[in-house]
Amino acid sequence: MRYFCVKREKGFTLIELIISITIAVIIMAILAPELRKMMTRNRLNGAGRQIVNDLMNARMKASSQNNRFRVIFLDNHRYMIHDDDNSNNTVDTGETNVTKDIQDSYQDVTFSATANPIFYPRGTSWGTTITVSNSIGSKDVSVSTAGRVKID
Fold first, then answer.
1. Three-class SS state of 22
2. Between the CA of residue 49 and those of 36, 75, 111, what are the distances in Å?
């Protein structure tokens, strides 16, 4: 009597493949809203960190260059860092100004400020609070009169 050996092909059957794809689609559908929230929260945190970084940089430059630096909030997404060489609190010709737009990197983020902070050569400042917000919430960036910049 002869025995025939049936050779099995390696790989997945069509049923196994369909079940795997269905499970993957269900998991993605469950995680997609949470992923959107996480990305929105990360944009808010990143924008807050960028503003803190620019404010701390202005404070450091005020001390190292021995003149005032002002951060002027132009609208709800743009601000200008002004190197006030003659320390008269006005933008004069020949003084360096750098304008930054927070929405270049963080599209849905806006901010509002209670005042424009001024950093003095001794490291102190004219304090203010900047509220950074988007659809997920808001964060406050505070500048104390001692010159400390932090996210609350």
1. helix
2. 20, 19, 13
Per-residue pLDDT of the chain (152 residues; tens, 9 = 90+): 666 666 666 777 899 999 999 999 999 999 888 888 999 999 999 999 999 999 999 999 999 999 999 999 999 999 999 998 887 878 888 888 999 999 999 999 999 999 999 999 998 998 899 999 999 999 999 999 999 999 98
Please tell me the CATH superfamily of domain 14-151, with its number.
minor pseudopilin epsh domain (3.55.40.10)
Distances (CA, A) of 75 to 25, 69, 139: 42, 19, 18
Query: Dihedral angle at the C-alpha atoms of 143, 145, 147, 151, nearest 10 degrees?
Result: -20
- Tell me the C-alpha distance between 6 and 44, whole Å: 61
**Which among 83, 67, 59, 66 has a CA at the least distance from the CA of 141?**
59
> How far, in Å, CA of 23 to CA of 63, rounded?
59
Classified as helix, coil or strand, 141 is strand
Six-digit token string for 62: 């005020």
